[in-house]
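thoughts on these tokens:
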Amino acid sequence: MQFLAFFAVSSILFWGTTYSIVFDTYLDTSNPRLAHLHQSSGSTHFWADKRSLLNVYFIKQAWGWTSAAFLLACCTGHDHTRVLQSFRRWFTASAAWTLLTRWCFGPSIFDRIILSTGGECVLPSLSASKDLTIFSVPLHFCLTRTSISPDSHPYIFRGSSFHAYDGQGGKPRLSRGHDVSGHTFLLSLSVLLLAEQIRPHFGLPHWSKAQALAVCSNMALILVWLFAIGTTSVYFHTPEEKISGYVLGVASFGLSQIS
């Protein structure tokens, strides 16, 4: 089961990334002149649209869905020792997710990678003529994910660099640098974690209704995450960013296994 999950994640990511290179379908999310836009294929390919149901209601909440399915499978087991091991795996994976994507004694590790590879905090402004201008703003606003506008932070927009600004404000973001694919990281980790959690169920002579529900729920979510890995690998991030996300996802799963 674990080998099949690893093979599926690796194969889908490889072929999806190869397709994105050959047909130039991916969006460089680290480029501030592209990242604020919806994927150029979004108008013709439903799954390339950041506003799709898959992205908004599933991928954006991926760790919540994964945790719910994982804990359901965990609580339907009868081996208390294995339950404790499962909770340790989940806690270790959650800690890795937090440190890499949310907070690491300040900025997350992913944010630190962007900054160490030339990233900066920017606020894109799209004029009435659809011309895009990129304005640099203090790093603090990206790290705190604070929305800014001429009304809320007038002292920023009085600077000489903002003389051409005619936007309404917004939420600055880190751009340029190496933007590790958080989706690839999290989805790879989730698939491997869920597959490992339900693996012991297949060695049981029979399942209770609760166990059957847990296995079916986990299998369904694994299939959704594999599909999401495919859409991410085809339409988003550079190949290097997807590879680094995949490596960190697999590494985080490996760490959870030895915890």
Q: What stands out?
A: Confidence is low (pLDDT under 50) at residues 38-44. Residues 180 and 244 are 6 Å apart (CA to CA).
